[in-house]
Design goal:
The chain contains six helices and ten strands, in the order βαααααβββββββββα. By secondary structure, it is α+β, with helices and mostly antiparallel strands.
Length: 234
């Protein structure tokens, strides 16, 4: 018996690309654990963002530093109408979890990158926040199939990224990787003036078909303004 999951490659930050494999592997380990736990717990109910003790400590540390936590991002993303927004109203959230991680830079500084993932039968959706000081202006020149967008008055860039498929042999304990399908991602400035940092919303399909841009933009317009700390454009 084997299990295959996918995750998108990391975004335009050079330090993120350098450790993409490590970040993805760690996230997938958590995803498999949560999937098994939620599936056994309540097969007929949507997965909920239920923080454990470690998540609660991370949330407290984020609050003290005036940052958002992975659990808060999960709560904003895991809406009751998310399946409808994706165009799959009969589906439900199979897994929903937040994470509080950081990316180290060459200068020795850690950049907080909390994130959340919600997985359905057809789609997986991720929402993350980066606290770097890089504005998104100019990112379109670095990304694949990039298009400038505006989300609730905030500058944004829509682009494509390749997912990495991880195949786990649950019986033999072996794993392998291969190119997956195309994910569509939207990087959004936290404020209308694009003074640095970003939110990133990423969607991909389990069947490796190309995701619907309209659904991605619709989710961004509704979800991001509900994230604590979101700045409303004047």
């Amino acid at each position: 018996m084997s299990e295959e999951v996918a995750a998108p490659e990391k975004g335009p930050n050079p330090w993120a690309q350098a450790i993409a494999a490590l970040v993805v592997v760690g996230a997938l380990g958590g995803a498999l654990f949560v999937f098994q736990k939620n599936d056994a717990k309540a097969a007929d109910k949507p997965a909920a963002c239920s923080p454990d003790d470690a998540d609660q400590k991370a949330a407290a540390a984020a609050k003290a530093a005036h940052r958002i936590s992975g659990t808060q991002l999960c709560t904003a993303l895991n809406r009751a109408d998310l399946p409808t927004l994706l165009g799959t109203p009969r589906e439900r959230a199979l897994t929903a979890y937040g994470s509080d991680s950081s990316i180290g830079t060459d200068g020795g500084k850690d950049i907080p990158t909390p994130g959340a993932t919600v997985r359905l039968d057809t789609y997986t959706v991720q929402l993350s926040r980066s606290y770097d000081h890089t504005p998104i202006a100019g990112m379109a020149d670095l990304l694949t199939e990039a298009q400038a967008q505006t989300v609730a008055g905030h500058p944004a860039v829509l682009y494509s990224t390749q997912t990495i498929a991880f195949r786990f042999d649950l019986g033999g304990g072996k794993s392998e990787t291969a190119p997956g399908g195309i994910a569509r991602a939207l990087i959004v400035a936290p404020d209308a003036k694009d003074r640095g940092g970003s939110y990133e919303l990423t969607v991909w399909r389990q069947d490796r078909m190309r995701p619907d841009d309209t659904a991605l933009l619709r989710i961004a317009q509704l979800v991001l303004p509900t994230v604590p700390g979101w700045t409303t454009a004047d």
